[in-house]
Amino acid sequence: MLRTGRSPGVARERLSDWWDVAYELHFVLTLYRSVQESLRTGSVEPIRSLEIDWSAIDWSALTVDGSLPRDRPGEGLNREADTGEDYTDEMYLADICQVLAEFINLGLEDCEVGFLSLTMPGEEHNQPGKFGLQIAPQNLVGAAYASYASVIAKRQEIKECPGCGRMFFPESGRQKYCTKTCASTSRWRRWKARQSVD
């Protein structure tokens, strides 16, 4: 995570550090999109198909004691073999939602904020895929994560633009391209391609 200065007139984040942050933000969006797809299909396969290397994650940076309530996602099968406890898809989804919340919290460390997963299998108030949030960012990195946290907490849809490949938040269910300019450019490319065939 980026550390920032707060002196007026001083650059708060180094540009080189933003490459790491951009990768982290992309990972968070990708993980959230897979949670959305899992809820839409009723299967955790969209999450499992990401083939995340959970051993590459620095768990000590994500949680106070370096562990999650029910082990780390993907390790449930090990616990299942050791203890005989079933590691259900519901538990896996809850663990993934917890990881997502922890990644967001790490990015919000310079904000006055709270972000939590409301996915609690077996609990009376279980709300699969839902998150709660209140934010006051103090720097650009915090503002970026605050924006993502707000989108996720509201369960806003994320689409991939077929024109340029960027992820975006559609203003309506009918919006296909990220911007009107991108839609126009795509139409022009299709028209140009048809003209060259004729």
- DSSP, total strands: 4
Rg estimate, integer Å: 20 Å
Strands in their spatial order, largest beta sheet? 1-2
Give start-end ranges of low-pLDDT stretches. 1-10, 66-70
Q: Name the assembly state.
A: single chain
> How much β-strand is present in the residues?
5-15%
Figure out the total of helices: 7
- The count of domains is 1
Question: What is the general shape?
Answer: globular
Class by alpha and beta content: mainly alpha
Secondary-structure element series? HHHHHEEHEEH
Give the arrangement of secondary structure elements.
Elements: H1 15-41, H2 45-48, H3 59-62, H4 76-83, H5 89-107, E1 114-117, E2 131-134, H6 140-153, E3 159-160, E4 167-168, H7 180-197
Antiparallel strand pairs: 1-2, 3-4
Q: Can I get a quick summary?
A:
By secondary structure, the chain is mainly alpha-helical.
What does this protein structure show overall?
The protein has one domain (15-156). With 198 residues, it is mostly helical. A hairpin with a 6-residue loop joins β3 and β4. 21% of the residues are buried. It has a two-stranded antiparallel sheet with strand order 1-2. Strands 3-4 form a two-stranded antiparallel sheet. α5 runs antiparallel to α6. The longest helix has 27 residues, at 15-41. Mean pLDDT is 76; it is low at 1-10 and 66-70. The chain has helices at residues 15-41, 45-48, 59-62, 76-83, 89-107, 140-153, 180-197, and strands at 114-117, 131-134, 159-160, 167-168. The protein is globular and about 65 Å long.
